[in-house]
Amino acid sequence: MTAEPARPAASAPPLVETTGLRLALPDRAAPARLGRPRPVVEILKGIDLAIRRGESVGIVGESGSGKTSLGRTLLRLYRPTGGRIRFDGQDVTDLDQASLRPLRRRMQIIFQDPQSALNPRHTIAEILAQPLRAFGLAAGRRGEEEAAAELLRRVGLPAEAMWRYPHQLSGGQRQRVGIARAVAVEPHFIVADEIVSGLDVSSQARILDLLGRLKADLGLALAFISHDLSVIRVLCDRVVVMLHGAVVEEGRCDRVFEAPQHPYTAALIDAIPLPEIDPSWLERDNRSPMRDLRPNAIIEASPHRLQSGG
Ligand SMILES: Nc1ncnc2c1ncn2[C@@H]1O[C@H](COP(=O)(O)OP(=O)(O)O)[C@@H](O)[C@H]1O
Ligand SMILES: [Mg+2]
Questions:
Q1: 50, 194, 247, 267: which has the fewest C-beta neighbours closer than 10 Å?
Q2: Could you tell me if the CB of 73 is within 6 A of ligand 1?
């Protein structure tokens, strides 16, 4: 019997890999001068990162450390100014948008603020149908509605939610829609950028639980960006600590939490607001830190919320 069959083999080739990744963007703060290019700011300064299938890697660092820029560059939403990015063995560093298109279905993003990421004039059904249509995955209205109902079920929302507009849902429910939209196209890799930051602690716990289960069910590779180490500890296998556009520490979550090597990591750990953490979350022995939280709670809570929100 293997000790940890669910864990990705350490020898498996990474799904996403960067070597010496650099990103420089025109400095927004610098005044534009006629005839002279804007000076650039170095945002990512040579990042080596590997994420395997089924693995979730936390990317942590204080605001401005480059987490969002890294996430967007991993998805080739930015073109790096140095280094290489490989996706599933293919070098995607210099691909143009047309060549990236077939890969887009396999890599998705979930944004921090579903309020602004979800079109307020579209119903949830419409929001979920869009990625399906974009990749030719839905067969007509009927097929789209069936797909939307199934996606909503997957993320713990009632099927009736598809007839609502984003403002009629709670923050946690909106974030579930953001997750449903990302998994709609059956991606292999998801970047989740501060997706629980705006939520209260119990909604955070439920969203982390959902994401952990989807990750396991779908074999997703996850880059989970957060400034908050406590949520990374709940969800992630490994953590990468960023400071000023560089990685200062990287390792398995349990090792990094027990014995941080870099003083900046130690400072981030010290900054975790312990009283807000349910100690059961930190039980990592059987890799299901959220097992005490009833996953059905949201399903029970949702119809009520939907009625009152309607
Ligand atoms: N388009 C841009 N042009 C210039 N500077 C940028 C741009 N986007 C981000 N930055 C700068 O890059 C740094 C990293 O930003 P970001 O990746 O958003 O960090 P984080 O997500 O960790 O808060 C910040 O100093 C930010 O001001
Ligand atoms: Mg950010």
A1: 267
A2: no
